[in-house]
């Protein structure tokens, strides 16, 4: 058990300590008064029990007492309100220089988008000690972003933005839940994979409200900077994925599959079947052989060279770190 957060998960953010102080105050205050009132009640029940020969005397009106037990709790409530409201505002208003992260909820996963446009599913990385502002939106129904370790819970509402600011104070992992029942969920929950980090449950099964889980990894600044430059590959069957496997994952994760097929069919964009080494006719009349550099440019700056007959497709420019570009290219090479 953690002494600084009795009954509660470890405090991992600035606001956690303040919320806990408020919580503990109310908790111990209630505890003391519950014990005191119960004790006095029992004492009075015994002292004023019915006895032969003693007649009950109804007490009269006592103005001083009545004003006291109305006014004193009123000040107490105002004090509590003041402190809670201060905390509420502090987390609703962004800190100076906060890093903005867009958080999108949908059935049944979380997407985190970094300031440089890169996005990830179910996993968010943050540097320790740096203020962050989360901007929530929902693609479908009502969700709620719940991080017990940061004492953070915010409704994620379709059709509007909600925000929350905090400063992570410790490195480590924070579990994320959806705290608003959002449907689905046939079958029984799968247990977390054996040996998963700290038993935290990064979902990946996305089958229903209960599977809408995520993790916030709080990293030292240097590790975070390194990760931003080059995120390491995810795992495939417990091993780091090969570039080809990683590329295959990115094909769906980055939604390339909504415009590009791998079986030769024409969608909004050209199929990736046999893409590497293919001769491509461009709108400016030239012909190119598709190689690494052409693919790289097609992803980062799609408008610079347009494939003939695909003028109206409009591929959005992507921000994708180098290692992932290489993975995508490796995957394309396998699509003979
Ligand atoms: Cu949900």
Largest sheet: 5 strands, mixed
CATH fold label of the largest domain: Immunoglobulin-like
Q: What is the name of the CATH class of the largest domain?
A: Mainly Beta
Query: What count of structural domains?
Result: 3
Number of strands: 14
Tell me what the structure shows.
The protein is of the alpha+beta class and about 325 residues long. The chain folds into three domains: about 80 residues; about 130 residues, Sandwich (Immunoglobulin-like); about 100 residues, Cytochrome Bc1 Complex, Chain D, domain 2, CATH 1.10.760.10. The protein is about 30% helix and about 20% strand. The chain is built from six helices and 14 strands. It has a five-stranded mixed sheet with strand order 3-2-1-5-8. The protein has a five-stranded mixed sheet with strand order 4-10-9-6-7, with helices on one face. Strands 11-12 form a two-stranded antiparallel sheet. A hairpin with a 2-residue loop joins strand 11 and strand 12. The longest helix has about 35 residues. The radius of gyration is 29 Å and the shape is elongated. The two termini are about 55 Å apart. Copper (II) ion binds next to loops.
Q: SSE layout and pairings?
A:
Blueprint: H1 14-47, H2 63-92, E1 99-106, E2 109-113, E3 119-121, E4 123-127, E5 132-138, E6 143-147, E7 152-156, E8 162-166, E9 172-178, E10 214-219, H3 221-229, E11 235-236, E12 239-240, H4 243-253, E13 279-281, E14 287-289, H5 292-300, H6 322-334
Parallel strand pairs: 1-5, 4-10
Antiparallel strand pairs: 1-2, 2-3, 5-8, 6-7, 6-9, 9-10, 11-12, 13-14
Copper (II) ion binds at residues 105, 143, 178, 180, 182, 209, 212.
């Amino acid at each position: 058990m953690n002494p600084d957060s009795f009954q509660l998960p470890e405090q991992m953010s600035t606001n956690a300590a303040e919320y806990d102080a408020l919580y503990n105050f109310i908790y111990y205050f209630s505890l003391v008064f519950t014990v005191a009132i119960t004790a006095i009640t029992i004492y009075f029940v015994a002292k004023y029990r019915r006895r032969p020969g003693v007649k009950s005397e109804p007490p009269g009106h006592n103005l001083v007492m009545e004003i006291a037990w109305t006014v004193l709790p009123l000040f107490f409530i105002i004090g509590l309100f003041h402190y809670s409201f201060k905390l509420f505002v502090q987390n609703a208003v962004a800190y100076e220089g906060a890093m903005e992260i867009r958080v999108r909820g949908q059935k049944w996963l979380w997407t985190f988008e970094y300031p440089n446009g890169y996005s990830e599913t179910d996993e968010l990385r943050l540097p320790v000690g740096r203020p962050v502002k989360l901007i929530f939106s929902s693609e479908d129904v009502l969700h709620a972003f719940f991080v017990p370790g940061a004492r953070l819970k915010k409704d994620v509402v379709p059709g509007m933005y909600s925000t929350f600011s905090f400063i992570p104070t410790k490195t480590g992992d924070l579990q994320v839940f959806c705290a608003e029942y959002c449907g689905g969920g046939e079958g029984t929950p799968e247990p977390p994979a054996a040996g998963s980090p700290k038993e935290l449950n990064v979902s990946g099964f996305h089958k229903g409200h209960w599977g809408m889980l995520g993790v916030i990894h709080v990293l030292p600044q240097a590790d975070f900077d390194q990760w931003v430059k080059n995120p390491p590959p995810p795992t495939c069957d417990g091993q780091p994925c090969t570039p080809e496997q990683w590329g295959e994952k990115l094909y769906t994760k980055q939604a390339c599959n909504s415009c590009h097929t791998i079986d030769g069919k024409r969608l909004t964009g050209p199929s990736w079947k046999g893409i590497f080494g293919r001769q491509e006719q461009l709108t400016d009349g030239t012909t190119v052989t598709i190689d690494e550099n052409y693919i790289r440019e097609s992803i980062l700056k799609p408008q610079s060279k347009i494939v003939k007959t695909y003028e109206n497709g409009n591929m959005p420019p992507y921000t994708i770190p180098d290692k992932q570009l290489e993975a995508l290219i490796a995957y394309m090479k396998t699509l003979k």
